[in-house]
Structure formats: structure tokens, C-alpha cells
Design goal:
Elements lengths: L1 H20 L3 H12 L9 E8 L5 E7 L2 E8 L3 H19 L13 E7 L2 E7 L4 E2 L7 H22 L1 E4 L2 H17 L7 H18 L3 E7 L8 E3 L6 E4 L6 E4 L1 H17 L3 H9 L6 H10 L6 H19 L1 H4 L2 H12 L3
Helix pairs in contact: 4-7, 4-9, 5-6, 5-10, 7-8, 7-9, 7-10, 8-10, 8-12
Amino acid sequence: MAHSKHRLAAAARRARDRLGFLRVRGTATWIVDRAAARPLEDGAHLSLVEPRRNQSGGWTVGVEHEGVRTAFLKMASSASGGRRLLREAEMLRQLASEPALEWLQPLCPRVMAAGDDRGKVYLLLSRVEGEPALRSLRSTESRDRLLSEAGALLDRVRRATRADVVLGEAELRQVIDLPAAAAISLFGAARDAPAAARLEAVLQELRSRMVGVALTTSLIHGDFWPSNLLVDPDTRSISGIIDWESAERPGLPIHDALHLVLYTRKLVARSPLGREVRRALEGAPWSEAERGVLDPAAPPNIELRHLLVLYWLRQIAVNLDRQPDRTRQKTWRRDNVEVVLECL
């Protein structure tokens, strides 16, 4: 019964997306024709297939050439969504041109076109082969294999793009103050004053413990979880890494490592991410596979508790940027913000 309801809900969602896409289909067709038709032979047939709303309310639609999926078009519906798409385009172009990351380039989409058409930011990307790695979470063995392979990729990216820094005021503003401002913005009413005060105390502790600390930064993906990892359907090996909208350089490598591990836990347990952050803060043990992801990325001179709080703050900021209405909802705040504050 549950599976039947899930299929019906998915079918209804796809139907709504197809209907909603009609309003922007003309713009999408014009973008694809202009960007992709030139390299194709005369008379080539392009079609737009499987439009779907993304988390930010924009659109992702497949592009087929003579019935073969060759590309994906992303279209933003907000200013923040447009900024993320342009950041993704910039990051992917950097990756494509950097010799130290030549090994990574086959795993990433290629930017075919990006720009702003009459106020609508778009990004056309080549297709990367594979399917989302979610099926690899069904057993402990396949899950551990995915974590091991993904962790090795993260470590290789970290070593290829590392830059050593000492945390001064500018760095603390980037890794603490800016994401914290997003979390603080969720506590506007007088009834939220105790939670806001707890958060302020946590921020003061972070600053005092981290100022002057030397650590390694690197390129980070920013949303490194199983749905953004593609795997070969037969071998289950990682074949692609998609959705680079939240990428940063320089960033803290531990963010990608923690996101992979904690989001995997979230998916397996079917729990809010905030509850998994709290479990980790309260000392829930890491598996050997999880340790294999976390240990290479964790700075030895910063406590894991502080790294978890930094990661948590960044995730609040990312969610507030992507889904502001949902992030401000009472249920989301309770399950992802207040549940963590209670244990700090």
C-alpha cells in the first residue's frame, strides 16, 4: 500500500511539473536551439523531456538528440537560484581547465552554455553517464563500498587543490559569521530569544577556539551526497558527480566528508539531518567506513564537535538560500535547528 501511494504521488508530481513547464517551454526551447543546434547536423531533432522542479523552484529538463539524452538544461526562478547556476558554471569551467584535476573531468558535466536570457539565468550541461547512487544504500556492504570510493575521491580532490591558511578575521567571517547570520535570521521573535542566545554563545566559543589555527582548505563540492553521485548500473562504481551549485574554493574539506556521512545516515534512518547532527554531537560511534571518509578530511587541531557545528551552520545557510520558505517553517526549524541547539 505504501509503495502504491508513493508511485501515485510521484506520478501526480510529474504531471504537475509537465503542466507547469508549459509556461517556460518556449524560453527553454529557444535557449537549447541557440546553444546546441549549431554543432548538430542540419535537420537534427532536439526535444525537451522529463521537466521537473528542483529544490529552489527552478527547472531541470532533459535534452534529447534523435531520441538519445545528451544534455540537461537548468533554469533558475529566483535571483539566488541564478547566482548558484552561474557559480556552478564558473566552477565547472575551472575544473575543466585545471591540469591537476584532469582525472576528475570525465566525472563532471561539461558546460555547453550559460547566461541570462531576458532575466532568466540558465545553464546547459552535457549529460554524465550513470544513475544516482541511492540504490547503493540498500545494504551495509554496498553502502560501505560507496562511502569508501567517494571518500577516496574527496581525499584526492583535497590533495590536488589544497591551500594552507591561518584563520584570521577574514577567514573566520567566511566560515563562521556568514553562515551563522543565516541561522540567526531564523530567530526573529521574542519567544526565540533563548535559542538565539545559545547560538550566540556557541559562535563566541567557535571564534575563540579557531582564531589563529592553521588548517588546509581546498575545493569542495558543497552538496556531496548519494543523489549527486552517479554510479554505473552494472559495476556500481562512481561514474559522475553532478550539481556543483554549492561548490566553494577555498572551502573546508570536512564539510563534504560530513555531508556524505551524515546525509547517508539520514537517508538510511529516514530522519531529519539535524537529528543526525545531534546524534554525532552526542557521541554516536562512527563505522569503519565512515571513519575512512572523515579522518583524512578532519583538521587534527580542531575538535570534531566544533567541526560538526561549522558544518551544521553551513547547511542552514545553504538551505535558507535554496528553500527559504521551507527552511523558515516551524517543523524544519524544530527538526534541523532547535534539536541541535538543545545539545550544545
